[in-house]
Amino acid sequence: MLEKLLNGPDYNKSLRRRLWMGAAFLAVGLVGFACWFLVVPGSSLDDHARGFYLGAASGVTLGAAILLARTGWLLTHPDARKKAQIEDTDERELHITRTAAQFAGLFTFFVTAAMLFWAVASPLPSFKVLFGLMLCYGLSFSFARMYLSKKL
Predict the structure, then answer these.
(1) Exposure pattern of 103-116 as b/e (b: 16+ CB <10 Å)?
(2) Helix H or strand E encompassing 1
(3) Domain ranges of the chain
(4) Are 18 and 71 in contact (CB under 8 A)?
(5) Cβ(5)–Cβ(17) under 8 Å?
(6) Is residue 6 scored above 80 in pLDDT?
(7) What angle do CA 112, 115, 121 make, to 5 degrees?
(8) Integer Cα distance of 79 and 76 in angstroms
(9) Is 76 helix (H, G, I), strand (E, B) or coil?
(10) Contact of 71 with 23, CB cutoff 8 Å
(11) Looking at the whole model, is its pTM more than 0.70?
(12) What is the pLDDT of residues 109-149, one digit of tens each?
């Protein structure tokens, strides 16, 4: 579904969608910076939480800037756009990407399951986060499977 949204039949339209996605990610990064400037200075947050605000905001903002710059470049340079379109729609590359995503999802699920044995003996919030992650994966997999079985 996401692949169809980002790599539809009209490549220019797909690039414009990527611009909107980049703008949304940029907004998320800017919210993170706003929290770092407005919330963190007077708070009693631990050092790792303070660092998370700055690190996550920086990473998301930088990623959004790169996405916006690359997409803007592709929209204004037809030769680069044509080359990128060929790469994005190549069946071999799509298969590699799908297989890698499938492996990463399963690997994350099983590592999280193993980590639950450690987390059950640690403070309750870490157990809840890991269990919630596994639940999110399982539910999203089930709903995606149901949706795709009806759609395809």
Answers:
(1) eeeeeeeeebeebe
(2) none
(3) 1-89, 91-152
(4) yes
(5) yes
(6) no
(7) 140
(8) 9
(9) helix
(10) no
(11) no
(12) 999 999 989 888 888 888 888 889 999 998 998 998 899 88
Rounded CA separation 23/20 (Å):
5
Amino acid at 83: K
Reported as a single tens digit per residue, the pLDDT across 57-76 is 999 999 999 999 999 999 99
Q: Could you please report the per-residue DSSP string of 106-137?
A: HHHHHHHHHHHHHHTTS-HHHHHHHHHHHHHH
Handedness of CA 14, 29, 115, 127 (dihedral sign): negative
SS3 45: coil
CA angle 14, 20, 26 (to 5 degrees): 135
The pair of structure tokens assigned to 142 is: 């089930």
